[in-house]
Specification:
This protein has about 250 residues and is of the alpha/beta class. The chain contains eleven helices and four strands. The longest helix has 17 residues.
Amino acid sequence: MSITSRTSSYLRFASGLAGLRSGDVFLASFPRSGNTWVRFFLCNLISLCEWDGREVDFSLLNQTMPELGVDNLLARWPHPTIPRVVKTHQRYRFVFGRRASIGIIRDPRDVMVSYYHFTHDRKRIYSGSFAQFIRHPRYGLPSWFAHYASWRSRWSVVVRFEDMLEDPLRELRRILEVLDVQPPDEVVEEAVSRASLGTLRRAESRETAKAQYAAFARSGTSGQWKAYFSDEDSAHYVELAKLHGAGVYV
């Protein structure tokens, strides 16, 4: 990253911090963990309550649901359906304060598979092997465990990607409890239906010409890491999990 782009990134982050409000709720996850899935659900909830059920695509999603360091958080939040939910992939920092936060986690080995394809195949910002990738200090397992360690005592609720696959309605209701909102059951159920992974993939297929949206949901499965991790890679993962005291996916 050049000095200019790094400075610009810092300025956007600082501006985002200045725009944070006490009622904001963080949606904090490591990349490729299910953050977009949850945001689609919340945006569909807004649509059903405020926009007569307008279809939510990736463009509308990103216009509506803000991200720290990307969007203008000084702007007024116009949606009474839910409090403002601010996406971040950043590690927890003291300046974030004691705001409520929703943690989305996924088996880090599956995260590595998805993130590798994202950075290697789609973005073409990483050219090494998968074995090298999972050991990379910025993208790989060391970064995942550092992110998890920074947030795990801060999250108001932790939702596992695998549990969302099993029962999305149950898990998304847990998120609504943190947001302290109680939409009608039929609205929540419809929002869950509209935000299914299958729906996300169909939305992607209509936007494949837009590179920034292509292949975002990918397979959305659990356990795919078994086809990628060697015995040595698995031993490395277990060693890191023990080192960080993170036995959530061992």
